[in-house]
């Protein structure tokens, strides 16, 4: 598919895009009862309100489970809707509103929202909904979330950007893709000889990458060197082939070459993964503490990225960096102020002390050091009410986070002087607080600090703060604004300052003033007081180093925090963000290179956002079109191939793909099937997975080898309340397997990471609920992660258990048949892959899963779950919980898998069991039935004996179930299908209380009275094998029948032909 212009190309996505948006919105409208909802407390017209289109309002909502986010689309209504019809009512129509901005308090917590409404809110409901309105009946309004439009708006804007059709840029290459790669550019083929390129080549050749990975990194670096044409490069990374490792090495190389690069991915998880990999490479190569990290920025939403749980990314996250640099350049307490204060203190502490005393005398009723208190206050407070028109611009008060991370903020903001004084006079604390500068008597309660107290406290406070600013500056400033020479001086100055402050605290009381006097020091040195000489030398060296540092840096003046963010983004080398968030970068400095990870999961229209960024000459797309694509809701859009990625389209058109062909994740037993089925055998097993040590056994049973299909024949699929499928029998089996893994871990202490995958959200939820104690990561060395197939893409674990869920007689497996989804599920395991499913359903589906089952059978890896006793019990218990009595009492069920007797049931039994609601009672009855079928009999004390004067007493047995109920049964005679024998069977009649047994005996007396003597004798005949009673059988030949007629009045006698059944 080719296009004649950029406009034609971008416009081609608009119809399926709008259809997809419509379908998604309509789908959400069908589940309004589950939609997030909050009560609106007040509505006011916004300052930019203007009829007829700019219907902007400021609203406040009740705090609860749902707090609107930027971009949310919600319905405003006066009811709590359960169905779409609840919204569209005559005389009470609903309104549509879109969150345009969020007002926050000083701590960054939302307090109000700016919304754009489809109609006037106040006119529509004919009231003012403010709480203080009088003489009106207030109507309660609700905001019901329908969807979030933020990403869709960004796509829409990208598709509708005005195009310069004459410009030659990277987007032009999309219109008519060619198969030629940039490394084949004839013009620059012989010019790749600059020092940075040669240094990177040397580094690559000595790395631990395999040969395929090395060659690929070199090609990408070579692409960057070409400035004669724009190009795309496709990196094909099948599962386990080290795609992320290769990408991390490539990005580190681009960082070394100072190549301004944007790296993005479809999801926050994918962005974090590639960023972590890059940071691992960078931190290992850092030579000067954290200098150089200022050239890396991670852009995104702090909450969604969960940055607080990723300490290794704290220093490069944009919000954190902007907050720290903003405080670094605070004119009152930042870098310049702190540096000058420390220099003055080092030069002449006596002068500083005299200024302190003079200030106390001049400023009656003032605290120890007003300037010092002002500095403290600047650290503690930030004033003003903030509106955030982009959610990510909302910085909030991150200072508390900085305190926690750096652990030095406490020393910066505490009242050092008072605390030190109070340690010596603890009884004066209360009086000092109460009087609080009330009169001149304060001077008596709070006398001036001594010289030593003042100097030590001042050094401690300013020293810690200055060290923090030093580290912050060389960590967070881009290297283009702070040279390596300056950074090394700052690092040296920081260490010198810390050493000096440590020496200062150890100086003996009473001699500190003399130490700062050079004349006195001369005399002291002559008496060989080496410690004091060392102290003075340290002070002089520290002062010299601080004097060599720059008072300021050549950066612009920042009035707002967003200006700091823009400065960071424009001057960094590597930027990481989602594809959607790249829309914020149109106004920053141009990028040279674009890298899109997981590009095959990205709709082609989404790629239009970063591809239109100014300056991009080359794009590297990394993905695997044989794994999961982007999700599409609309069937119409799906048929229009709206979910197809640019990566896939290029592949279909023959664009060259560079294959990473060695996998280092899966044991060869696991990789065998997906490699053959999905990649035509092109993937090689790395040497690491072929080593004997890679064959790990976590459970000592053939069923739990490296690769197994575990058949659950008794499963039952159903729907949960959200119309997603689940199979509670498979849940029980998976839970039991994980329980066994945990027991093995407790015994061996060998660490194991378990992943449980299912294509259905309802199944994931049910498994998580069943295994809650293992999913909370409370067991050091043993972890369980339960996710959907889509959620596990890119992940890996030691053991993977797949629950396929589907179990029906027609082989219907729905979207489980998707080959890409199957590929992802089958390639997540390192050492063991166990597939739990229903053989019949999967084979009858004629999908990829039929091949999975047959492959397992051919390789001897097929097992039945009921063959394991613990799994059989788990299945039985699950069927009991599901009230599947008919399944359990079928002679082919697990209950009777070891049965010696055939068990038949009377209708009365079914009726009685239908009334049983207690699962424990249910289990006791089934246990009795299982024992009866196996030939076990109860002791006399557990039985109820019927009166001997009754016919029924010869056959009827009543076994105790509990204190109230008994199981009534007897031995009967039946003919087996397609058999020429009579055989004994167990006839289960009813479960009933003791008081009803006599009535049953009366009923059975009449029935047994119709039995012939011969039949009665056969029913009473008992054959034993050890402690078990086994059924007897008799042939149905003519002599047997005549014998029955002629000897009807006689008992069985020796010599009669009877056989115990097998």
Task: Output the keywords.
single chain; alpha/beta; Rossmann fold; seven-stranded parallel beta sheet; seven-stranded mixed beta sheet; 42% helix; 16% strand; elongated
Tell me what you see in this structure.
This protein has 1062 residues and is an alpha/beta fold. The chain folds into five domains: 14-159; 230-323 and 558-659, Rossmann fold (3-Layer(aba) Sandwich), CATH 3.40.50.300; 330-547, no CATH class; 666-877, P-loop containing nucleotide triphosphate hydrolases (Rossmann fold); 897-1060, YaeB-like fold (2-Layer Sandwich). The protein contains 44 helices and 33 strands. The strands form seven sheets. It has a seven-stranded parallel beta sheet, sandwiched between helices. Strands 25, 26, 27, 28, 29, 32 and 33 form a seven-stranded mixed beta sheet that branches. A hairpin with a 4-residue loop joins strand 27 and strand 28 (965-975). The longest helix has 26 residues, at 451-476. The two termini are 70 Å apart. Mean pLDDT is 83; it is low at 127-133, 365-440 and 1042-1057.
Tally of domains? 5
Which structural class is indicated by helix and strand composition?
alpha/beta
Unreliable parts: 127-133, 365-440, 1042-1057
Strand order of the largest sheet: 9-11-8-12-13-7-14
Fraction in beta strands: 15-25%
Q: Count the beta strands.
A: 33
Please summarize the sheet with the most strands. Answer: 7 strands, parallel
The level of helicity is 40-55%
Query: Taking Cα atoms only, what radius of gyration do you get, to the nearest Å?
Result: 40 Å
Mean pLDDT: 83
Distance between the termini: 70 Å
What gross morphology would you assign?
Answer: elongated
